[in-house]
Amino acid sequence: MLKLASLNRLADQLVREGYQRVLAPPALIRFTGLEEADVLINDISGYPHAFVIACVMDRQIKAEKAWLIPYELKQRLGFFDFANLASLGKSSPDKLTEAMLQPTPLHRFPNEMSKSLLAAIDRIEDEFGGNAGDMWAGRPSSATIVRRFLEFRGVGQKIATMAANILVRDFRIEVSDRYSIDISVDVQVTRVFARLGFVPMNTSVDYLIFRARELHPEYPGIFDLALWELGRTVCRPKHPDCGNCPYSHLCVYANRGDAS
Predict the structure, then answer these.
(1) Using CA atoms, how far apart are residues 207 and 212, in angstroms rounded to an integer?
(2) Which DSSP helix (H) or strand (E) runs through 38?
(3) Using one digit for the tens of pLDDT, what is the confidence trace for 101-137?
């Protein structure tokens, strides 16, 4: 591994750049590459359930495709206000399932995700009175937001912490703390964190989470977006483009080539 001083410099750089994102002027968050779909997801005042449903859908497919699903459902159903979604879910759940399937499946596992969609609508109706925005209203703790997302069918650590991080980092939702916004562990984050030298290769999820907590305990998820973006662009599984990585001067992989 790199010397401790170099690792600390690298961690400090990642933290500084993470906070630059948090403090930057608010802007439309580009989730899908389609303007209309992104506008829907960004409208967390009028359509907070669109954001929640997109998070629930974000499994086993490319993120951009998952985040398109609320917009695609709106196109197929002709509406996406929560009152009508809840009414349809109770009176004709098969129509929601059909919208997930026809004319083409919206997800790699459309039947399974249809169940998650219906369960999400039911939970928002039953627990939050039909207003998903109540999940993060009133300056809650970060643990409360993460726990509330974990209660949705099929949502695990990765999606729950990702959702909380987006709300805080990008949508500037007020919270009482950021301690429980952990790094969202996926293949991109794991690979980049290891190549940079912070964790061993093939490390466990728990090890990676606690390493991020050790490095920046007040907001461990501050590392998340930078690592994920690096993993999708320059720090690819094979033939990483180290020459275009802003951290290559401090990176184990780039400087010693003993990580893969």
Answers:
(1) 9
(2) helix 35-42
(3) 999 999 999 999 999 999 999 999 999 999 999 999 9
